[in-house]
Amino acid sequence: MRHAGDMTSAHGSVDEAWGPKTAAAIEAVIERRASNAMARRGWRPTPLVFDSYGRAATDSGPGWVRVLCRVLVMPPTQRRSAEGRSRGWRRYLSVSAPNLPARIRIGQTVHRARTEPGGHLDLRIPVDLPPGRHEIQVSVPGGAEAGRGHVDVIDPTIGRGIVSDIDDTVMVTLLPSPLQAFWNTFVMQEGSRRPVPGMATFLNRESAGFVVYISTGAWNYAPVIRDFLRRHDFPAGACIMTDWGPSTQRWFRSGLEHKRSQLRRLRTEFPELKWFLVGDDGQHDPAIYADFASEFPESVDTIAIRTLTPVEHLVMGGVPLAPDDLAALLPIVAAPGLEHAHPPDGVRRLAGGDGNALIVQTL
Predict the structure, then answer these.
(1) Which of 19-23, 175-179, 279-283, 288-292 has the highest mean pLDDT?
(2) Are 100 and 141 in contact (CB under 8 A)?
(3) What residues does the Phosphatidate phosphatase APP1 catalytic domain cover (predicted)?
């Protein structure tokens, strides 16, 4: 016989399961109605294609590319705003176009799909392309013009790839401070953002031609990141962002889970590569990377951590760690949902206050 406490627990689990699903369904209805309303005002669906990556065909399998795109409904004159050439807050005043047919062209290959909730496309399309940079075009019915982006097709014999965090690893943001986050995101001019000293040189030195930037920031921010990386001579690479708001599993998307899942995806897609993982100690990068290296020691070459200053830690709400004390830095107390893992002895560990200090560590 079930006790009253058991009944409460059961109802709680039902509520937890249905709550995020209901919120996600409501969000989808709002998106669809807003998209239709804006279309009646003359706004048009506009594909924004993000830089991504692919795999060249090898003896172990055919080639493919990963297509990352978001379709927004906007006035035809505001494409420049959506592509990141405006003050921050304008990028977040957008209407997405879910369940819209899309035509994707890569070389001579044409693929058709429909946009997901939020107007997103995240597809792996089979296509054999030589290693190098290739253009992707995405067009939608009623769109003013096709969206264009690039995909870097990788020859897996390069042996190594880089995964880098963005906020406070390559770009000074200090986002966990609410006031600073609001200012940086919605007010600051894009040209005012500062790179972490020496980090572009460090990543260029260590890159073998394949760099993936993973951030917990929203996709609205991706064009800004792309322009920032180009402006400050960082190596080109895919920017894998995330989405805010409810999903069918949770009320708010988990940044920790986003990074963990993308690391595992890259390992599955490129099992031949050893990864050079770059992050900072302001949040959970050391724990995420240590956990991944402990689980897949054969897939990790190096963990490089930028150590924030005590003042930066104070703003971030963290605890300062001694820059020269790798034992204190890696491992650290794991974040909720992460095991307290120790990187294997075979994984090289670097730590320094900026890119220049990390370069010295490599010497």
Answers:
(1) 288-292
(2) yes
(3) 161-306
Rounded CA-CA distance 338/264 in Å is 14
Residues of the chain with CATH 2.60.40: 44-151
Q: Where are the alpha helices (DSSP H) in 121-271?
A: 178-186, 199-206, 222-231, 255-269
b vs e for 281-309, b when ≥16 Cβ sit within 10 Å of the residue's Cβ? Answer: bbbbbbbbbbbbbbebeebbbbbbbbbbe
Q: What's the pTM? A: 0.78
- Which DSSP symbol is given to 167? B
**Topology of the domain covering 156-362:** Rossmann fold (3.40.50)
Mean of pLDDT values over 204-211 = 93
Q: Which of 3-7, 115-119, 248-252, 298-302 has the highest mean pLDDT?
A: 298-302
Amino acid at 43: W
Question: Mean pLDDT over all residues of the chain?
Answer: 77
Using DSSP's 3-state secondary structure scheme, residue 257 falls into: helix
Please tell me which residue, 41 or 119, carries the higher pLDDT value: 119
Residues of the chain with CATH 3.40.50.1000: 156-362
Cα distance between residue 110 and residue 334, in whole Å: 45
